[in-house]
Write a sequence for this structure.
């Protein structure tokens, strides 16, 4: 029986690649070393030029050579579509479709199976681009990312449009951050460094665990005298919630890639704020055999206090994932 | 994000026309120049007027108003751009506090982020 596969979005190493501390080869070698053979990228992060000017052929050749050298698999090119490119007007519909086609071409040039669309894009644009994706042999996956979720009307609209189109080239890429079941410790610590009083921090963390409606939490923090960073902490509850992993099940036939979002992996291989045991169980139940690609996003929460160690964080996540997936010992890594 | 990595250490230079340093876009990807809404520079607490700021990458130099309609060039991820401030006389040797803020128009964000960095840079005599 086909099994869940492991991969990494190189987004995870952004703190290192931004500073030139890791090259593309360092990233891919690292992933392969963790047994994570699927490689996902944000095209505008990994390559210079796209979409404003042409990416150098040498850079593309290097990509293919590295994928081959480390026996990896290109999974997804995450594209952006800057529909606010023009200062005073939104990009017209036809131009948006043409832009998606350009990203389909770029994804195809990299040998990707998928291109990731941001959730802000309209279903009509993606439906119009779908025949071209079919022609090029890849799929366009819209990223379902908190605060959106599978029961949100905007996502239902996308799902309806995809069904109506009849295209198999349209699908979903859920980000596991939508199943945030505890307030991440590193978020609370960041807000403490920004000067949020301890009673407010304790209240927000508790309110998150109690699933209190975010509007009440914002009001209560105001009533506790919270301003600035304290309100920003309360506002995180408007953008995050503990949605139910089982809500992915009705959509399994269109879920082809997954963002393994995480904020912190502890040294005993647990992400304390995202229930990966439940998530992997649901994916197994749904017969998922695509990749879970790591998306480490703790970096931005700790970088003011310490230099993130993205490689160690990703390693720990892959120890966890290989155990949860139940990989044969020879595939799992030496912890 | 990347706030504290925007200004490149030890990159301050000066001549009779003004001064310059290297700066990076505080973002996890690059951005087309038309979406860089503003670059604000201050030295020792004094703001440089917008019309006196120049942005330079890969041999091309732009005024900020010009950048608003540049659709064929970008500030790449991690790319060190030369940020030039036209200031007749330049800066005196010694330490100077540089403030650097970038305002970006990000299509999917329901707000317009401004990210800042501030560093003390030394100018050799």
């Amino acid at each position: 029986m086909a099994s869940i596969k492991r991969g990494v979005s190189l987004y995870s190493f952004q703190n290192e690649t931004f500073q030139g501390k890791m090259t593309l080869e360092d990233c891919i070698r690292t992933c392969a070393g963790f047994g994570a053979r699927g490689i996902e990228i944000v095209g505008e992060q990994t390559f210079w030029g796209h979409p404003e000017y042409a990416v150098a052929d040498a850079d593309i050749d290097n990509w293919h050579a590295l994928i081959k050298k480390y026996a990896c698999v290109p999974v997804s090119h995450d594209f952006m579509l800057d529909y606010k490119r023009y200062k005073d007007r939104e990009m017209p519909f036809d131009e948006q479709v043409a832009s998606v086609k350009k990203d389909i071409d770029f994804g195809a040039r990299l040998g990707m199976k998928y291109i990731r669309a941001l959730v802000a894009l309209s279903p009509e644009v993606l439906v119009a681009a779908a025949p071209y994706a079919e022609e090029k042999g890849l799929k366009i996956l819209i990223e379902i990312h908190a605060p959106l979720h599978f029961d949100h009307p905007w996502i239902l609209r996308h799902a309806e449009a995809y069904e109506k189109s009849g295209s198999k080239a349209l699908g979903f890429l859920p980000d596991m951050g939508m199943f945030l079941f505890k307030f991440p410790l590193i978020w609370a610590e960041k807000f403490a460094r920004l000067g949020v009083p301890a009673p407010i921090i304790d209240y927000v963390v508790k309110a998150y665990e109690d699933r209190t409606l975010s509007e009440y939490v914002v009001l209560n923090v105001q009533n506790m005298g919270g301003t600035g960073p304290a309100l920003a902490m309360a506002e995180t509850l408007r953008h995050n919630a503990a949605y139910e992993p089982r809500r992915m099940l009705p959509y399994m036939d269109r879920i082809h890639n997954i963002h393994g979002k995480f904020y912190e992996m502890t040294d005993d291989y647990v992400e304390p704020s995202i229930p990966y045991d439940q998530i992997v169980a649901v994916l197994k139940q749904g017969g998922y055999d695509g990749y879970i690609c790591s998306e480490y996003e703790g970096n931005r929460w700790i970088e003011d206090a310490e230099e993130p160690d993205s490689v160690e964080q990703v390693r720990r996540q892959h120890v966890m994932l290989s155990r949860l997936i139940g990989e044969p010992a020879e595939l799992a890594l030496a912890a | 994000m990347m706030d504290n990595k925007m200004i490149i250490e030890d990159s301050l230079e000066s001549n009779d026309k003004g001064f310059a340093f290297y700066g990076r876009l505080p973002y996890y990807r690059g951005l087309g120049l038309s979406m860089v809404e503003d670059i604000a520079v201050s030295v020792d607490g004094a703001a440089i007027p917008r019309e006196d700021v120049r942005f330079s990458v890969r041999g091309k130099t732009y005024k900020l108003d010009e950048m608003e309609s540049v659709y064929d060039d970008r500030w790449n991820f991690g790319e060190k751009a030369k940020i030039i401030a036209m200031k007749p006389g330049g800066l005196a040797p010694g330490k100077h506090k540089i403030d650097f803020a970038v305002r970006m128009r990000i299509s999917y964000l329901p707000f317009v982020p401004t990210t800042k960095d501030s560093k003390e840079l030394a100018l050799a005599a």
In short: Chain A touches chain B through 31 residues (CB under 8 Å). Chain A has two domains: 5-181+242-325, 185-237.
